[in-house]
Amino acid sequence: MQQAQLYFLSDQYYQDFPDDKLMQNKDIINGAPHSRPCFFAFKDTKIDDIYWIVPISSRFEKFKRIEQDKINKYGYCNTIRFGTVLGRNTAFLIQNMCPATRKYLTAYIDKNNCPIRIDDRIAADIEKNARHVLAMAKRGAKVIFPDVFKIYHGLEQQLQQNTIISKPFET
After folding, report:
1. Across the chain, which distance is largest between two alpha carbons, in Å?
2. Which domains does the chain have, with CATH numbers?
């Protein structure tokens, strides 16, 4: 996987890891599925095959207000970060991040079949803050909405089963 690249999450992920706190896979506009959120992905520090994915929202002003509310209440906000994607201001919702494997990710590509990427400085800021928020969650803070540890353990089990299945029978 390329660094600072954006991805979509498959429908199968939502079936395998149902969680009402996950960002919905498709928006419904006029009764029809319209688009999917895209995600910024970075590798887990423990298991190379697991990625942490941070959803991106185009609702920049809404999340700027939420960020300001958190700053007013706590003095800072590292659960929402901001940057540009395809020239548009966007919010990176660390508070909605979750783990996934390549099996569930599809690259976001443009009409010329080139992967959509974000600036490395934005990527570094998001990853740094996401790792900090994840560390807070591991200590028991309720800073991430989905049950990311349940999903993570499910992904670990899948990876272990795939390793066992893919190994040839030894005598």
Report:
1. 65
2. 6-166 (3.10.129.130)
